[in-house]
Amino acid sequence: MNSQGRKKAMRMLKNQLQERRANPRKYRSDFFDYVLEELQEDRGILTEEIALDLMFVLLFASFETTSLALTLAVKFLSDNPLVLKKLTVCEKFIKNCISKIFHFCFKT
Question: Is pTM, for the whole model, over 0.70?
């Protein structure tokens, strides 16, 4: 996808997000509703820009190959070092927990 195509898709996603924000639904029924809910959270780390990038990647990944989706994921993470740091911390925490569980369950 060229940069013009990306800009057009991002503009369409942004317009859809603004329309949903102006006319919210009573019940969550799709991904946009969940994104809007997260954007309204005070504690949320999701910004509109990140949400739009994420929706674009998900849309793009459904049509393109896994390797391209992974490339976009790496680009997204490199553009957002705070998100990368949080994922790294979560990964270390999860690995540590799994290690302790295995040690507890299978100690001799």
Answer: no
